[in-house]
Design brief:
mainly alpha; two-stranded antiparallel sheet; about 0% strand
């Protein structure tokens, strides 16, 4: 680690610093509560040959198995560099302006010098985290690179990183967010740093079961920086850890406008093939998408990439989607098909849904005259019926429960319009063949149907008939209708859970 830097001016946080040591004396790492939560393993890089160091070794939730207390050596700064570094720290803390930190780092691009600087900064504990959380977006890459260099050199340990995370109440409702600090950690791309940081935020959040939406946003932001294999590992090792965080991720006071959940869903979508853990994250997130365009767009992308895996996970052996799954998927379609504001990629998602349904219907037609149809065809008919029921359930939820009639009508009209080329033999009651209709005619049909039966929108919009009528095999049509009705009737189950 770097030698201590003699202070040149008083600092607001000076009383929190340890007594300065001689320039040649190295700091000995100490075990904190965070060190027992993550098993650390140093990366092999250029720092290792010149900077031996120790770190607590342990497993998540276990006691420390071993602690190497050997002194850690780090490249020394010159006297002039020590003075300028200390002055930058004093100015940054006194003025609560992290630009003094990044200006020093930009002027000293040597990773070893930056590691020494970050070593000194992280002696401030939680105050360092609060200061870094005020950094500007353009300065985040500089701070991420410096933190990564400091960790790989041994100048900053996992103990020190997690000690910089404010305890409960710090960063909840007072205007502080933790999100920028999480972005800095995520920007390192270092799985050890990211996992330890997220684990610490989760520990604080779950200790007293607080709402703490700012911390929830930080957790999602950090985890989104993990590579797919490491995110999968985290989700598998912490199956229930994100449940509480997701409940607060889009809190209207602080989290509703963030991109955190969207980024986390995109990161989970990169896990290929989809796993039970990544699908669970997707399903658990549905009740917390809200009106957030970024969250809804990312959920739509996840479904587009993993539709078959999601439907399979939500279905029983017969191919029918269970009641809880139908309820959640109904809300998913409410948010992605029938809720404003629109999001980037929404038109493409509409096209994907209609194309998916068209492909299913075309496969069923391969057994148009089979008697009896194969088990695979019956399973596909149940899956298609369940999916159509979930889409209709999403429409009804928007109309009945969310009072978003205009949005729902527009979304349904647009969805039906896209079916024109996929189901050329289908017709709309009273309007003729679907492929001959204009979007205005479809819009008028949906609107008039709702006016005639405002209390029974499930009867007003027979969306399912567009598919049911196109299934030639009567046995498969019956299977489809039964599965659709079951899915539709159970739409309320699983919502907001």
């Amino acid at each position: 680690m770097s030698p201590r830097i003699d202070r040149r001016a008083p600092s607001k946080l000076g009383s929190n610093l340890q007594k300065d040591a001689e320039p040649t004396q190295a700091r000995t790492p100490t075990a904190t509560t965070s060190s027992v939560k993550y098993q650390t393993q140093r990366n092999a890089d250029a720092f290792q040959s010149t900077a031996p160091r120790g770190r607590a070794q342990g497993a998540l939730g276990n006691t420390v198995a071993a602690l190497n207390t050997n002194a850690v050596a780090a490249p020394a700064l010159t006297t002039e560099q020590q003075a300028s570094a200390e002055q930058a720290l004093v100015d940054a803390t006194n003025r609560q302006d992290p630009s003094y930190l990044t200006n020093w780092l930009k002027a000293h691009p040597d990773p070893a010098q930056q590691a020494a600087f970050m070593d000194r900064l992280f002696q401030y504990g939680p105050a360092a985290g609060q200061l870094l959380d005020k950094a500007s977006e353009e300065d985040l890459p500089v701070l991420s690179a410096a933190l990564d260099a400091a960790y790989r050199s041994g100048a900053v340990t996992l103990d020190e990183l997690t000690a910089a995370v404010g305890s409960h109440g710090a960063g909840s409702w007072g205007g502080e967010t933790h999100e920028t600090l999480a972005k800095i950690v995520a920007g390192t791309g270092n799985p050890e740093l990211i996992t330890a940081y997220a684990q610490r935020e989760l520990e604080i959040m779950t200790a007293s079961n607080p709402a703490d939406p700012a911390r929830a946003v930080a957790i999602a932001t950090a985890l989104a920086g993990l590579p797919p294999d490491k995110l999968q590992e985290f989700l598998k090792n912490n199956p229930d850890a994100l449940g509480h965080a997701l409940k607060n991720i889009n809190d209207p006071i602080i989290g509703g406008g963030t991109e955190a959940l969207g980024k986390l869903l995109d990161a989970a979508s990169a896990i290929q093939p989809a796993t039970p853990e990544s699908i669970k994250l997707f399903m658990d997130s549905i009740g917390h998408l809200g009106d957030n365009p970024e969250s809804r767009a990312a959920a739509a992308r996840f479904f587009t990439q993993h539709a078959d895996a999601i439907l399979a996970a939500a279905s029983d052996a017969s191919g029918s989607i269970g009641s809880a799954g139908a309820g959640k998927l109904s809300e998913f379609f409410t948010r992605t098909l029938f809720t404003e504001p629109s999001f980037e990629g929404q038109e493409a998602f509409h096209s994907f849904i209609t194309s998916k349904l068209g492909d299913m219907q075309a496969q069923l037609e391969a057994e148009a005259h089979a008697n009896p149809p194969s088990q695979d065809a019956q399973r596909l008919a149940r899956s298609m019926g369940s999916l159509v029921g979930a889409i209709e359930g999403g429409f009804l939820l928007s109309v009945e429960e969310l009072n978003k009639r205009n949005e729902a009508v527009e979304g349904m009209a647009g969805l039906i319009f896209k079916l024109k080329d996929l189901l050329p033999t289908s017709s709309i009651p009273g309007l003729g063949q679907l492929q001959n209709l204009t979007i205005d005619q479809i819009q008028n049909w949906v609107t008039e149907a709702l006016k005639k039966k405002p209390d029974d929108p499930q009867d007003a919009i027979p969306f399912h008939q567009l598919f049911g009528e196109a299934i030639s095999n009567p046995a498969l049509r019956s299977v489809y209708d039964s599965a659709r009705l079951t899915s539709l009737e159970n739409r309320e189950l699983g919502l907001n859970h």
